[in-house]
Amino acid sequence: QVQLVESGGGLVQAGGSLRLSCAASGRTFSSYAMGWFRQAPGKEREFVAAISWSGGSTYYADSVKGRFTISRDNAKNTVYLQMNSLKPEDTAVYYCVCGGGVATGWDYWGQGTQVTVSS
Fold it and tell me: How far, in Å, CA of 8 to CA of 39, rounded?
């Protein structure tokens, strides 16, 4: 079992930056791919970014490519999402996920952290 706890959300002006963190419990964190999804009000949950267990491969949604960076520190059981050049359309609840990866799917989800970007 893996538990995920997100932090770092908040209110920021358009063009600003935030860094989300996701702390994972469990001894096998380093064997899982990690990722981020988001859900805006009235919209379906969508993929944002993912990173392989080693950190050697990363994947991004087209909407965030070049602005967001996912990284992980296996020694700290933590995955990060650095978000730059934020836009109002990035406003959403952001969820940390853990599992087999983009092709296999996600087994564990965090509770989410709110990100609000004002115009």
Answer: 16
70 in helix, strand or coil?
strand
d(CA 28, CA 105): 17
Which residues are bridge partners to 34 per DSSP?
Answer: 51, 98
- Who contacts 119 (Cβ-Cβ below 8 Å, separation ≥6)? 14, 88
Place of tokens 């949950």: 45
Q: What is the pLDDT of residues 60-117, one digit of tens each?
A: 999 999 999 999 999 999 999 999 999 999 999 999 999 988 888 899 999 999 999 9
Cα–Cα distances in angstroms (integers) from residue 115 to residues 6, 57, 105, in the given order: 11, 25, 24
